[in-house]
Design goal:
The protein has 112 residues and is mainly alpha-helical. The chain has a domain at 21-94. It is 73% helix and 0% strand. It has 5 helices and no strands. It has helices spanning 2-20, 25-40, 43-46, 48-66, 70-93. Helix 2 (25-40) packs antiparallel against helix 4 (48-66), helix 2 runs parallel beside helix 5 (70-93) and helix 4 packs antiparallel against helix 5. The radius of gyration is 22 Å and the shape is rod-shaped. The chain starts with a helix and ends in a 19-residue tail after the last helix.
């Protein structure tokens, strides 16, 4: 009887850990946005190593998030964001350009 109670108690405490951990939703979103921004300036071709590292860290973060290892997911997402930001800066330094927002900077305006 005591063994059963101890087993139930330990199972409840293990499952409670995953319930009380904070999900790193913001960190995951920030990493994804940083990757998108890096891709927008062609970091995948102008800074391929940094971009590859950012993508790998992001994949690791997503895998850990799915496994509910939220501490690792947060750490990996932060690394992915930092690498993506570095890749973006490197690409911009090497001649990468941002796509113009719907031709707003082209100087043409529709007449009324």
């Amino acid at each position: 009887m005591r063994k059963t109670a101890a087993l139930i108690s330990s199972l409840l405490s293990v499952s409670a850990c995953s319930l009380t951990q904070t999900r790193p939703v913001q960190e995951m979103s920030d990493a994804q946005a940083a990757l998108r921004a890096a891709r927008e300036v062609q970091a995948d071709t102008l800074a391929p190593e940094l971009f590859r590292q950012a993508s790998e860290w992001h994949l690791k973060a997503r895998n850990e998030y799915q496994l509910k290892n939220f501490d690792l997911a947060k750490r990996y997402a932060d690394r992915a964001r930092r690498h993506a930001e570095d890749a973006e800066l490197n690409a911009l330094t090497n001649g990468g350009k941002r796509a113009s927002a719907s031709g707003a900077s082209s100087g043409t305006q529709a007449s009324p």
